[in-house]
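Board notes (copied after class):
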Amino acid sequence: MVGVALSDCGRVDGPTPYALHAQAARRALADSGLDRSVIDGFASAGLGVLAPVEVAEYLGLRPTWVDSTSVGGSTWEVMAAHAADAIAAGHANAVLLVYGSTARADIKARRRTSNLSFGSRGPLQFEVPYGHTLVAKYAMAARRHMHEYGTTLEQLASVAVQARANAAANPDAMFRDPITVEDVLTSDPIADPFTKLHCCIRSDGGCAVLLAAEDYVPDTAKAPVWVLGTGTSVSHTTMSEWEDFTVSPAAVSGRRAFAAAGLTPADVDLAEIYDAFTYMTLVTLEDLGFCAKGEGGAFVEKGRLLRDGELPVNTDGGGLSACHPGMRGLFLLVEAVRQLRGEAGPDRQVTKRGTAGATLPEVALASGTGGWFCSSGTVLLGRG
């Protein structure tokens, strides 16, 4: 990964989603120091009838390798895996991954409504008539974990509290004021057991990541971040096909990524994990092997997820506080790369696990989740 960037994020009322794509792409290309002519691969999803053809046209690109995989929030980790494979196989030289959304602005302007479900065709027709919304699916899974392992509301709330604490040092975060466990527990109810602060924010924003073949490294503006290993997995669409509500597809994608990289969870210095809801962070940490199944509640307590904690998680504030314009998975990769480069700034830069002083982290993990734990993509990144 040789170039990363955010577009304007948070409250962005003027630009269109296409404009946010272009802004992020230009910034990522400038960050890489490469010329746009090297881009022969393009990946995009979620915009246009013929994504990524329409977005590539808007950006003035004519790629010979494209990917439009759309599996929800994990789309970008899956696309990164595809791009790395394509580059390694010689099918592309430089692949641009780009995303942009005006989800918040569209609702404020009444151009759209909140998405309670992803549709009512196919297998989903057996759930939608009964009001089984997206948030209700996550809430049901969280309740099952609480019932089976004794996970508490306070433990789930601590995930949101730590995400907000990490966001406090991030000037790009949409919400930075500190919150307490009590604030989370007493905020407006959404779907039992979730209150408003258990749920991700709705923002505008975009970002881009440029991956390039090793031959281009001497020409890049900054040291690259290397893709060490990837893993992907899909599980289910309907809740009736989910064998265990307490196990996500990250249990498969994480195992495959660690095996491909020849690493273990103990080697990871920071983790960027999709957090549409507090429960997602908790159960994904279990499934990736950072703690045993059922011990996620105890693991997330006592500040372990803070920037200077035992395992810094969502160091930008995550979807719970920084930004969540829709399919947030690409933001995880941007933040992971910036942390590995040492570009996060003095107030929120992570240091290597187990060291004193200012040693930069060496290994970062990004794990995206799609749908209601329907899909997962895990990418391990390394510095140097």
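Comment from the instructor: Residues 17-32 form the longest helix (16 residues). The mean pLDDT is 94.
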